[in-house]
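Collaborator request log, item 7. Partner lab (contact: R.S.) asked for a structural prediction of Dimethylaniline monooxygenase to inform their binding assays.
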Amino acid sequence: MRVAVIGAGPSGLVTLKYLITAHNFLDTEPIEATLFEAEDAIGGTFAHRTYEDAELVSSKQLTTFSDFRPNADDPDFLSAERYVQYLRDYCTHFNLWPHIKLSSKVTSYGCNGLAVCSGLHVTPNIPTLEGIENVPKVFHSADFKTKSQFGVDKTVLVLGTGETGMDVAYMAVNSPTRRVLLSHRDGFLCAPKRVPDPVILPIFGNKSDPNHLNVPVDSSSASLFDTAYVHHRLRDHMLLWEYYDFFIKSTLWLVGGSKYGLGQWIGGISDGRYHASKIFFNKSNKAMPYISAPYRASHESSLLQRLRASVIQVDIADTHGRHIDLAPRPACFTPSGTVTFTNNNRPEYTRLRHEQIAPDVVVLATGYTQTFPFLAAGYPTPSTTLDTRDLWHSSDPSVAFVGFVRPSFGAIPPLAEMQAMLWVLRLVGGPAAVGVLDPAHEPQYRLKLAETARIQYGVDHESYAYQLAVDMGAAMGVGEVMRKGWGCGGDGWYKLPLVWALGANFNAKFRVRGPWRWDGAREVLVGELWDTVARRGGFFGHITLSGLPMLVFGTISLFLYLLDPLLELIRPKKTAANKR
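Returned to partner:
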């Protein structure tokens, strides 16, 4: 069997690895797999579209692959440079280099399977803005590399409030610029990368410990009764979404004063779009204190806010007198280069409307457009919705799109690893290898995005990962978890079950059993990942993120299991799901 992989980013590399090692796990002959990369180096976006001081927004615990773990001394959030080195080491460890062809654009290739792991043409998305040619310097974030590109004593306008836009604005305000503006279309949610660790009773002089770093948020959720062992009636109901929507908003308000983001006093997502089931979290949060600075005093002056902040409050970063002006989308630029902003009926427009602002530099952090000219016209792509686990179309499972789903909060590389495992299993073993992939299970993990949203393939990371594990027979039952724990020896008898229950859906959980079983998985779970779970601290780590959801959802699931025979008579199970 010959299989081609397009793209040498993390998704392409992990797919290649599972293809060339499949015969070690599955009943199949060795696969002849070749990866083609148009650039002259591996790493994808992390190597070719990154910039000075870039840092991953997902944690090393979640982002790194199941059987090749980060170094013990790596920080929780790897730099882009370090992550590219990790990918190089991954290629060396699994001897992928002989199967990789760099500087190779695919025009045709005879094969039995194709894994598309990159847009074959990824081009910057350039918005049409009247008069933008009157701005002295305009460039897309794809061409941004260093802070020196801002110049000295210049006014910088950044368009786009995604994670790249936030990074660029933060770097600009910490450069010798005159002024920095950040333009948005309909708000954003600036989420913390770590579990909030607020100061309790700061009114008495209590302060945070600068040496204590709480666990990353994407490694903090408990899977027990949230994704694992959830009764189907609860799993398919909006109750889970509603709980987390309430939890997110109430937690953000409690520790920072605003439900729209951590310490976010401006730029909130419009209420019609702001629901946990509909949004992608922005985890690049360094710019937020600078964006909120002009509005903080007025918002924090109310009696309710003063009372709240005297009881509990996250630290507020010192901006040293600098700030970022949030702005609406530009309507146009005049012949003199002055920007006219769209009236969005928000406070930022009122604040700026009488000013004459002529930016010296405009940075377009407006994303990318992906096309697939290698495929026949009309062939299903991620943007047209793949009907089998958002991975392949049922009409042709020999072609997979790996690494295109976008998690609301999580990371793409570990999901790409799970996708690669499922697709390779399907490719070599046929339908019998993965069972029936019931489409009724898909709405449970899909985000409830508006039909007009540019990205339609958003997923809940935890639900999606667990569903793929169930599809492959890699999710352990309660009894098996306990037996595997005892089999670890030493203190593994309690560590493995607790990591399974209290930890996020790390991919190593799904290498303990199933077709891709790996002997080192248990060591990873009772070692590195146990340390991660045990490190989770405070009220928000142990109670709200673990204890309370398990108590609430566990009780509901138990009740439903006990009543299931009666409920089946009264209200038979639907064939299509509503949620998660």
